[in-house]
Amino acid sequence: MLLRRLWDMFSIPMMALVDADPHGVEIMTVYKFGSRALAFETCYMAVPSLKWLGLLPSDIESIGIPKKALIPLTKADQDKGAELLYRPYMQHYPAWKLQVEYLLRTDKKAEIQSLDSIGPSFLSEVYLPSKMRCCGWI
């Protein structure tokens, strides 16, 4: 509710920074579209303008996260990813769908803290400023 209230009151852009895994994507979809369990309260809780800033599955390769920092998808991850692809809203967000498909195809996930394997301040001093400067969200 807090994010929705901030968005309603100040019209500030909302960005999601989540793990590049199916569960991170699902958490982000709850913020954007609302929870299926609380569907009757979606208009009070969801932030429809939410953008996916990162960690995008396609960022894993493009920014050079070391292979040792990547984690193979579990069966639960694969099932969650496949299920996400068939949610109705994914048809309206093809860039999001492509990211989930990329994740399933590469069979690797990365947590936000995997960016520390590039450098201890990579997230705050390189990744996020670059994404914001280049409008690198979807």
Automatic annotation (TrEMBL):
GO terms for cellular component: nuclear chromosome. It comes from the Eukaryota. GO terms for biological process: meiotic DNA double-strand break formation; meiotic DNA double-strand break processing; reciprocal meiotic recombination. It is found in: Nucleus. Its main location: nucleus. Residues 1-132 form the Topoisomerase 6 subunit A/Spo11 TOPRIM domain. Keywords: Nucleus. The keyword Protein transport does not apply. InterPro entries: Meiotic_Spo11, Spo11/TopoVI_A, Spo11/TopoVI_A_sf, TOPRIM_Topo6A/Spo11. One of its GO terms (molecular function) is DNA binding. The keyword Cell membrane does not apply. This is Topoisomerase 6 subunit A/Spo11 TOPRIM domain-containing protein.
